[in-house]
């Protein structure tokens, strides 16, 4: 008994002595190794694995694009998992603090590095992985840390460091299988960012033998198949799609693997069209594919387009858009294809605009198609504004010419036609229902489902909605107890009370609201001359803008001519007449028409217009060179004007306008020419020229100045106003002079894209950049305090010999970037930056940054930035 008692005491002594985190004894090490591994490390690792599974689960694969090598990290998912990561960090931190002599300390550091990586604490993550690489005795862990470090460098596009890590690992021996898998997968990601398809294929192919997870192996095989398919290697693509079907993949991936395998093997090559159509019909009918019917119809539509069956393809795409589907992105592709058909085949720009609008609601800003559509949609939006203005205003003006009785008849006829249309749509939706036991029971009562039973008859329900709306107007659906509780309050819904109605039902019930009331229609018809004049002004502008768009942006000279000739015929005194003549001249010239007609009209009616100068001198310089020459000519002429050498100033001005017509300096050159006219020509000539200038210029400052000059000339102002006008004139021309030094490209290579991803840029001289060694670290610290959850990245590069730039990205749009810039300017402090350097920071869209990187001219972009962002 004594012996047992003694053993127990000895055991307790050993146990408690093992709790020490300092004593490096066998018992102590065994205790701390066991506790650190199976308590803290295990639980922390499980939580990180849970996060990674959540990232996979929340990611919706877009099978129309090559699948990403790594599942994208969504900041929303990270935010939702904040508590999970906090617990994981605490567990690993305690393992390090409490079990310092454990051999699992470095493993816990690695987990902390992963947590920092997922939470976008990039600097901390880099420092942790570097620490492991330098200090850890575990070779496998060091390799894993380096691979994770390489992934961060790729995210930052810090390719010099990526290459250094690759070179280092290539010389390392005995990299274990798990690390080899991670290494080759990360290499594939690297080659993807460099647009090296061959490198990406090679790296993914090498990762396959080291892949333990069958589902992961299936996904990699699917990516390889997609890459081979895009490279036109159909046999290899088919083989990898077949491999992707192994390993029990998710049903959706399995479906696409089978579909694409059939496409590369047979569907794209077979001449048996009936067999292919039957294949798509079978896919559509398969109940397992209920959530993928929109995909089947979309793929069938693409097939029909290849057969030049455009009408069938459009009908299939419209059907596909109506299917529920499981992936919203697929709807984006459907609407995008409908837009492309409307745009390229039908020249139906209005439909294309609305299809693109629908597509954008289903794409995310990070999707490749989003930026592509955004870049196309701007001119389509503008087209539709002017097209619909012409259609609407023209109709309203015509209606205003009718009697009130005729107007009422037209409104009633329109409403009746709309009611008939809705009833026809309801009838088209009616589907015969299978007879069942309840139909048989109802048959004894003399009725059958869907015929006389009101709530089974959509036509009757639609007619009821229309009748109700006609008699009672648009009233909210409410039960009696809700009405009584409101007493004498408004018939509108209470702010407190909300009724959750399924979206489909809401759409069904609100169909009758599409019909406007007769009163609302009649109220839009203009009643006074002032209303009609306003509509005519809008029409005049829209005819011109539409004609201009159609020629320059849509390359449609025929349609452009039609709109501009309507403008000139309907509004012969339009101030846009010289420019309209000029565009008609260009359009007729392009189609080998009668361009001479419009060049002669320009010379006869507007001999001093810049458009006439351009017609007379078609081969002159343009762009930056023209602007520079015009700037120099203006400066020289103005100096002569100040010296009262008016004749010589006029010769230089006229020569400058002939050599460089239609630059951004043209309005200033013309106004100075008018001012010289006031010194050399008679009073009436000067007055006419001033009036013509006022009618034609669009520059607000120069317009104001010309008006003051006219007031001073006609004597309508007191003498003091005349002096003020003259003073204003001199001040304005002098202030314009200050801008002359800057060269702005006549048509900027940069485009305004506020919805594109944006970058924040700090510009420094190379010597100053060398001194600013801590700037990136200070910016990262600023982010950690103010933008911890934004996943912002930083980097730097030499743009050219004169400029080094520091970059912060990404921002979803210009608005987000402006918010960041405002906070940066207000709160960021650093010895590396002066206030002036901070204030000269820029915002730039991804598309414009690529253009800037080609052109290397920061001052050129700065002028665009001041105009569009300031």
TrEMBL record:
<dbReference type="InterPro" id="IPR011990">
    <property type="entry name" value="TPR-like_helical_dom_sf"/>
</dbReference>
<keyword id="KW-0732">Signal</keyword>
<feature type="region of interest" description="Disordered">
    <location>
        <begin position="483"/>
        <end position="510"/>
    </location>
</feature>
<protein>
    <submittedName>
        <fullName>Gliding motility protein</fullName>
    </submittedName>
</protein>
<feature type="compositionally biased region" description="Low complexity">
    <location>
        <begin position="484"/>
        <end position="494"/>
    </location>
</feature>
<feature type="signal peptide">
    <location>
        <begin position="1"/>
        <end position="22"/>
    </location>
</feature>
């Amino acid at each position: 008994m004594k012996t047992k008692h003694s053993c127990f005491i000895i055991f307790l002594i050993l146990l408690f002595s093992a709790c020490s985190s300092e004593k490096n004894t066998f018992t102590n090490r065994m205790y701390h190794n066991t506790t650190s591994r199976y308590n803290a490390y295990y639980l922390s690792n499980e939580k990180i694995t849970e996060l990674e599974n959540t990232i996979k689960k929340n990611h919706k694969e877009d099978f129309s694009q090559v699948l990403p090598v790594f599942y994208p990290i969504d900041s929303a998912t990270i935010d939702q998992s904040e508590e999970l990561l906090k617990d994981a960090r605490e567990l690993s931190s305690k393992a390090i603090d409490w079990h310092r002599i454990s051999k699992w300390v470095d493993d816990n550091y690695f987990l902390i590095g992963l947590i920092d990586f997922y939470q976008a604490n990039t600097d901390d993550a880099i420092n942790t992985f570097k620490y492991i690489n330098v200090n850890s005795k575990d070779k496998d862990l060091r390799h894993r840390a380096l691979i994770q470090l390489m992934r961060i460098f790729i995210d930052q596009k810090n390719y010099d460091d990526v290459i250094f890590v690759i070179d280092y690992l290539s010389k390392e021996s005995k990299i274990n299988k798990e690390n080899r898998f991670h290494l080759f997968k990360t290499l594939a990601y690297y080659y993807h960012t460099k647009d090296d398809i061959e490198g990406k294929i090679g790296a993914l192919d090498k990762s396959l033998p080291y892949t333990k997870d069958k589902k992961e192996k299936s996904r990699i095989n699917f990516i390889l198949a997609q890459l081979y398919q895009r490279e036109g290697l159909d046999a290899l693509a088919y083989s990898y799609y077949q491999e992707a079907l192994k390993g029990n993949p998710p049903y959706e991936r399995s479906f696409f693997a089978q579909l694409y395998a059939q496409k590369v093997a047979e569907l794209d090559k077979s001449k048996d069209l009936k067999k292919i159509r039957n294949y798509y019909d079978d896919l559509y009918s398969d109940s397992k594919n209920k959530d993928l019917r929109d995909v089947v119809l979309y793929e069938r539509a693409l097939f029909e387009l290849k057969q030049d069956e455009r009408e069938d393809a459009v009908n299939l795409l419209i059907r596909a858009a109506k299917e529920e589907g499981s992936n919203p992105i697929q709807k984006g592709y459907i609407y995008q294809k409908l837009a492309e058909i409307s745009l390229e085949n039908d020249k139906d720009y209005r439909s294309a605009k609305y299809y693109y609008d629908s597509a954008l609601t289903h794409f995310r800003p990070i999707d490749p198609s989003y930026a592509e559509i955004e870049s196309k949609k701007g001119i389509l939006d503008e087209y539709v504004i002017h097209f619909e203005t012409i259609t609407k205003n023209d109709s309203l003006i015509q209606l205003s010419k009718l009697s009130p009785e005729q107007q009422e008849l037209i409104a009633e006829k329109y409403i009746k036609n709309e009611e008939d249309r809705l009833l026809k749509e309801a009838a088209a939706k009616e589907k015969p229902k299978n007879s069942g036991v309840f139909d048989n029971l109802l048959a004894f009562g003399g009725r059958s489902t869907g015929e006389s039973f009101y709530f089974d008859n959509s036509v009757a329900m639609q007619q009821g909605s229309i009748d109700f709306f006609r008699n009672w107007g648009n009233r909210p659906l409410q039960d009696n107890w809700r009405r009584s509780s409101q007493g004498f309050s408004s018939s509108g819904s209470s702010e407190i009370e909300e009724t959750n109605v399924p979206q489909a039902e809401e759409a069904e019930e609100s169909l009758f609201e599409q019909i406007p009331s007769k009163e609302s229609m009649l109220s839009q018809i203009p009643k006074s001359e002032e209303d009609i004049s306003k509509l005519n002004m809008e029409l005049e502008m829209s005819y011109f803008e539409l004609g201009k768009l159609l020629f320059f942006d849509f390359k449609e000279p025929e349609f452009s001519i039609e709109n501009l000739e309507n403008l000139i015929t309907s509004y012969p005194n339009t101030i846009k007449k010289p420019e309209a003549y000029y565009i008609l001249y260009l359009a007729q010239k392009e189609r080998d028409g009668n361009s001479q007609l419009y060049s002669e009209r320009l010379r006869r009616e507007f001999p001093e217009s810049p458009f006439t100068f351009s017609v007379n001198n078609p081969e002159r310089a343009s762009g930056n060179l023209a602007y520079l020459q015009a700037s120099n000519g203006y400066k020289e002429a103005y100096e002569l004007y100040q010296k009262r050498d008016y004749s010589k100033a006029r010769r230089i001005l006229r020569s400058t306008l002939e050599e460089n017509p239609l630059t951004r300096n043209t309005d200033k050159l013309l106004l100075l020419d008018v001012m010289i006219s006031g010194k050399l020509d008679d009073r009436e000539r000067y007055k006419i020229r001033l009036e013509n200038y006022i009618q034609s210029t669009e520059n607000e400052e120069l317009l104001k100045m010309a008006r003051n000059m006219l007031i001073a000339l006609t004597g309508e102002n007191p003498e003091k106003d005349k002096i003020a006008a003259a003073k204003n004139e001199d001040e304005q021309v002098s202030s314009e002079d200050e801008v002359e030094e800057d060269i702005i490209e006549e048509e900027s290579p940069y485009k305004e894209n506020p919805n594109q991803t944006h970058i924040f840029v700090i510009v420094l001289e190379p010597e100053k950049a060398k001194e600013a060694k801590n700037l990136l670290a200070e910016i990262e610290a600023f982010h950690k305090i103010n933008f911890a959850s934004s996943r912002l990245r930083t980097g730097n590069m030499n743009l050219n010999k004169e400029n080094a730039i520091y970059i912060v990205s990404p921002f979803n749009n210009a608005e987000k970037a402006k918010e960041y810039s405002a906070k940066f300017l207000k709160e960021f402090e650093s010895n590396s930056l002066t206030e002036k350097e901070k204030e000269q920071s820029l915002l730039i869209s991804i598309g414009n940054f690529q253009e800037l990187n080609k052109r290397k001219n920061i001052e050129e972009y700065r002028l665009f930035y001041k105009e569009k962002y300031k």
